[in-house]
UniProtKB/TrEMBL annotation:
Classification lineage: Eukaryota, Metazoa, Chordata, Craniata, Vertebrata
TM helices/strands, residue ranges: 16-39, 51-73, 79-98
UniProt source species: Chionis minor
A single GO BP: D-alanine transmembrane transport
GO MF annotations in UniProt: L-amino acid transmembrane transporter activity; neutral L-amino acid transmembrane transporter activity
Record's keyword terms, sorted: Membrane, Transmembrane, Transmembrane helix
Protein name: AAA1 protein
Xref: InterPro entries: AminoAcid_Transporter (IPR050598)
Amino acid sequence: CLATLVIMLVGDTYTLINYVSFINYLCYGVTIIGLIVLRWKKPKIFRPIKVNLLIPITYLAFWAFLLIFSLYSEPVVCGVGLIIILTGVPVFFLGVYWRNKPKCVNRLIESVTCWGQKLCFVVYPQGGVAEEE
């Protein structure tokens, strides 16, 4: 949310579209690389849809061209896009990887989560309590 607010302060729609498109292309390419790695390392797992490997390899060739061209033509925008992605790394380590958090940190995370759920109207129902009609 904070990164989105900072990006909104830029005010230039063209730059915002470039940030988002670079991030999207990067994530799509990493997903396709994951598909190829799983096909190579775990060929026997169940796949509801199996695609010929020529399709993702061809996609990766175009993906690499687009990414290299983007990095060459607008390195600052791509750098900002990478920084936006990397802002999630500390959040991951503080929220997910760090298992033995102090109780005050857990309470803070729970209160921020509850506040965010109420703000966005996405509160999950609590188990064990019957809803009143």
